[in-house]
Design a protein that fits this description.
This protein has about 150 residues and is α+β, with helices and mostly antiparallel strands. It is built from one helix and twelve strands. About 15% of the residues lie in helices and about 25% in strands.
């Protein structure tokens, strides 16, 4: 009996592909054939920055998942794949910040807090700020008077 022939009555019973069990056909050696590695038995997943691709049958009755892949430096997924961009530092693993849509190590002096994708620090509200602004305005007025 060839591998594509149905077994005799009462022989191999076809099982669902997702079980990686019996195909319902003979294997060519008088045994029931099992689903091979060309059969996907479980979909891929991505959760908390870890991707597991689609699982496949191993020809011996088991559904085997591929090795997990971490999405470092991204912590988020896009469907069943690692993200390739970020919106905020919450999309990045610890120790990385979102800058310009990419998870990167923070620059020297950057505290790692979410900066909305920009590394420039916000203006200071210290008492020196108004004094500096006043000084700059006076200097500008002085330059204009010299030219006049």
């Amino acid at each position: 009996m060839t591998s594509d022939q149905s077994p005799p009555t009462g022989g191999c019973v076809q099982e669902a592909e997702t079980t990686c069990g019996l195909t319902g056909l003979c294997d060519g050696a008088g045994e029931c054939a099992q689903y091979g590695s060309d059969i996907t038995c479980a979909g891929g997943t991505c959760s908390e920055g870890v991707v597991t691709g689609e699982s496949a049958c191993n020809g011996g009755g088991s559904c085997v998942a591929p090795d997990e892949v971490t999405c470092d430096p991204y912590l988020t997924c896009e469907a069943e794949a690692c993200a390739t961009s970020c919106v905020s530092t919450n999309d990045c693993i610890d120790g990385f910040v979102c800058n310009g849509g990419a998870c990167v190590e923070p620059a020297a002096g950057q505290d790692g807090d979410d900066d909305g994708g920009c590394c420039a620090s916000a203006p200071s509200n210290s008492p020196a700020t108004p004094w500096l602004a006043s000084f700059a305005l006076l200097a500008l007025v002085g330059l204009r008077r010299r030219r006049a």
